[in-house]
Amino acid sequence: MTDAGHTGGQRAATGQFAGRRIVVTGGSRGLGEHIVRLLLSEGARVATCARKPEPLEALRSSLDVPTALFTRTLDVSAPELLERFVEEAASALGGLDGVVACAGGARGRGITEATAEDWAATWELNVGHVVRLIAVATPHLRAAGGGSIVVVASVSGWKPGPQAQYGSAKAAQIHMVSSLARELATDGIRVNAVSPGSMLIPGKRWDRMRREDPSAFDRFRTEFPGRELVRPEEVADAIAFLLSDQSRAVTGINLPVDKGQNAPTPEGY
Predict the structure, then answer these.
(1) Is residue 263 part of a domain?
(2) Is residue 207 part of a domain?
């Protein structure tokens, strides 16, 4: 694990999250990067982690925002490393007011090909990571008088498609949110999920399809009533809403941000 505690720009923090201290897992690329940049631009102090140091360093070096960024390089599914990161982040930021569980992914193929290790790895990355993140962050949120937790789930959590290990893990996340929202409500802690649809992220699956197989991409676009895939900025906006005081009466929900998407993959369901 490599360590990097970083301070951002020199101006006083302003914006709707000024003074807020927020942990975001998986914040160096894609949706996670958009979340981190948005929160920083609105005055938050942010701690984030990723598996490789280079994207974190690239993110840090590109920032021109009036706040602090704290980073660690780690695998969120590795025992104890995630817990240590959260404790160090809370210490560096002076506490925690919000948490975003964004890290996720899948291993393996179909049911006859995926191994028990594929299933275990997919569940640990999605479900285990979220459980441990919330467990270690909760005392810090309690100490701050409450806070907001947002879990990045997926439309695959209730619109079935391949592969089952990923969809079932995302379904577990959604159920977990509804349960923990009740458990933590007396502490003033809100827990919600956001379920993105298929996002058009540069260099990722759908962007590659768009460039390499335009006809297949056009067919996939028909799964969206407006014929447009979701942009990560749109999902980040929804997450920021659930972290903000504007959603203070909202807890235990799963908010789809999918532009009305039908099947979650070109293979249908």
Answers:
(1) no
(2) no
Active site residue 269: no
Encoded tokens for 102:
């964004």
CA count, 13 A, side-chain hemisphere, 133: 35
Of the residues 119, 123, 166, 220, only one is catalytic, namely 166
pTM: 0.93
Residue 206 lies in a domain: no
User: In terms of C-beta density within 10 A (0-12 exposed, 13-18 middle, 19 or more buried), how is residue 166 classed?
Assistant: buried
Number of domains in the chain: 1
> Which residues in 26-146 belong to E strands, given as ranges?
45-50, 68-73, 98-101
The pLDDT value given to residue 120: 97
What pLDDT was estimated at residue 168?
A: 97
Q: What are the structure tokens assigned to 246, written together? A: 């504007």
Give the domain CATH number at 66: 3.40.50.720
Q: Which residues constitute the domain of residue 50?
A: 3-199+232-257
Q: What is the pLDDT of residues 152-185, one digit of tens each?
A: 999 999 998 889 999 999 999 999 999 999 999 9
Q: What pLDDT, on the 0 to 100 scale, is given for residue 43?
A: 93
Task: Return the sign of the alpha-carbon dihedral for residues 42, 137, 252, 102.
Answer: positive
Within a domain: 163: yes
Count of Cβ atoms closer than 10 Å to residue 83 Cβ: 14
Q: How many CA atoms lie within 13 A of 75 on its CB side?
A: 7
Q: Give tens-digit pLDDT for 110-154.
A: 999 999 999 999 999 999 999 999 999 999 999 999 999 999 999
**DSSP-assigned letter for residue 12:** P
| Spatial contact of 107 and 126, defined as CB atoms under 8 Å apart | no
Could you tell me which of 254, 206, 202, 252 has the C-alpha nearest to residue 228?
Answer: 206
Q: What is the pLDDT of residue 13?
A: 63
